[in-house]
Design goal:
The chain has a 6-stranded antiparallel beta sheet with strand order 1-2-3-4-6-5, with helices on one face. The protein is an alpha+beta fold. The protein is 29% helix and 23% strand. It is built from 13 helices and 23 strands. The longest helix has 24 residues, at 310-333.
């Protein structure tokens, strides 16, 4: 292949250096002599150019990616054939692959890893909107340019969801370190499969390694089918429960539990990035760039000194000092949510349960069916200054048997402890769990099992759960009496442990 260096394809693209190789093609840095600029040339290897199936797959890649235009996708510039060998002309990205970056640095900064995951997810969202599945999402196929931005490349085994044939069901394609369970089994592959692979990439960015090892590719693929991922918070305790929940949901083996769309995953990742910036009080590198691109409602969670220009920082400094000091105090006083294991009074180790951003749901089956639905996320956002509240009851009496807040934690676990923070202590509550997929529609219901009762919930209340080893998915904090003299109950934080 080195003899090709110096070759000028179709009198225009002069090959200067080989920068990558694979079973079907090699990638060269080249010069477009017409426009006098560097490009990347993906040239089909000569020994397989005569294979009609491989040739059609190569042409399909060019057609597929040519439809796409996104700042985090490597763009297709041209396509051609020279002496029977097809090639694709791509945007040339100076930098390194994400895999090289992980090998060089090991664990990435948490905010940097989340920022890259957001950029990759946005790029995949563009492809999926065009009914194109990448099918081989891995850090080797993500380029980090000189400005630190991520760009997804190599749609070599991409498939249009509108097409049949070359990559039909029953044929496993992709790298098994990142392969989704359904792809490993040869089942139908959709955009959800790419999201699974991205979840594994995010796991690797945070831990420095892939979750599964095996004697061969088949052994690794079967672990993706059968085994749960090692706990990311055990390997890296500073990973928050919110971020762990994103990984859990992205890599769920059951498609019904996995993110169903790019938009859902992106929204959760954006929330996590904002919370990480708020928690650390700073952002660097690509995280800074991505923070500026967040929706306004999400960006508002980021401290002013992180999201504002330097000119504003001097003006805002005096106003934010008090809030920052208070934030440090609150963070120091928080439970161990999102920081790995916590210990009970008896010394038993507990693990925080990762909760995705929409895991909290209001539960009012005995009233009008809703109880401040728009506030439920405040109960699990890691910010004790935000609260979910019941409706106001003027008599100080609920006038019904109860109202509550449900935590949905798929695929479920044996839950051992619920921690409650409230600015309105003194209300009475019970805790119930349910294990079936559908949330019980009413209370009482045989699907609910009571596991705790607290006659007066304290401002910082730890509630042990007597589940008798029963695995559950839903946990309900059921408020049965309002605090003395109060007309409502408020919850600032709920943390769940197994």
């Amino acid at each position: 292949m080195s003899t090709l260096l110096g070759t000028c394809l179709n009198g225009r693209y002069r090959l200067e250096a080989r920068i990558g190789t694979g079973g079907m093609s090699s990638v060269y840095r080249a010069i477009d002599e017409t426009l006098e600029r560097p490009v990347a040339i993906k040239l089909m290897n000569g020994e397989i150019a005569s294979d009609s199936d491989q040739l059609e797959r190569f042409r399909r890649e060019a057609r597929a990616v040519a439809q796409l235009s996104h700042p985090h996708l490597v763009g297709v510039i041209d396509y051609g054939e020279d002496q029977g060998r097809p090639y694709i002309v791509l945007e040339y990205v100076e930098g390194e692959t994400l895999k090289e970056r992980i090998r060089r640095k090991g664990e990435l900064e948490i905010s940097e890893a989340v920022a890259y995951a957001i950029e990759i997810a946005r790029a995949l969202g563009c492809a999926h909107a065009h009914h194109i599945v990448h099918r081989d999402v891995k850090p080797q196929n993500v380029l980090i340019d000189e400005e630190g931005s991520a760009k997804v490349t190599d749609f070599g085994i991409a498939r249009s969801l509108d097409d049949d044939g070359l990559t039909a069901d029953g044929r496993v394609l992709g790298t098994t370190d990142y392969v989704s369970p359904e792809q490993a089994l040869g089942h139908a592959v959709t955009g959800q499969s790419d999201l699974y692979s991205l979840g594994i990439v995010l796991y690797e960015m945070l831990t420095g390694g892939v979750p599964f090892k095996g004697e061969n590719q088949v052994a690794v693929a079967m672990k993706h089918v059968r085994e749960e991922l090692p706990d990311v918070q055990t390997l890296r305790p500073e990973v928050s429960a919110s971020l762990a929940a994103v990984i859990d949901r992205a890599t769920a083996k059951d498609l019904h539990e996995r993110y169903r769309s790019d938009e859902e995953l992106i929204a959760d990742l954006e929330n996590v990035l904002a919370l990480e910036a708020a928690r650390s009080g700073s952002a660097t590198g690509e995280a800074t760039t991505v923070l500026r691109s967040l929706p306004l409602s999400t960006r508002r969670r980021v401290p002013l000194r992180v999201r504002s220009s330097p000119a504003w920082l001097a003006v805002a400094a005096l106003l934010t000092v008090a809030a920052l000091v208070a934030g440090v105090v609150l963070l120091g006083d928080r439970t161990h949510r999102g920081t790995g294991t916590a210990s009970t009074a008896g010394g038993g180790a507990l693990t925080p349960v990762g909760l995705h951003s929409d895991a909290a749901k209001d539960y009012d089956p005995l009233g009008d069916g809703t109880e401040h639905t728009d506030q439920t996320a405040f109960a699990i956002d890691g910010n004790p200054s935000t609260t979910w509240t019941t409706e106001s009851y003027t008599t100080g009496d609920l006038q019904k048997d109860g109202v509550g807040l449900v935590l949905d934690a798929p695929p479920g676990a044996v839950f051992r402890e619920l921690r409650v923070r409230t600015p309105t202590p003194g209300f009475a509550a019970s805790v119930f769990v349910a294990r079936r997929d559908a949330l019980p529609a009413t209370m009482p219901d045989p699907g609910w099992m009571q596991v705790a009762s607290v006659p007066s919930v304290g401002a910082k209340q730890t509630i042990g759960l007597d589940t008798a080893g029963r695995r559950s998915r839903y946990v309900l904090l059921w408020i049965t009496r309002l605090p003395p003299g109060g007309d409502k109950a408020e919850i600032s934080e709920l943390s769940l442990y197994r």
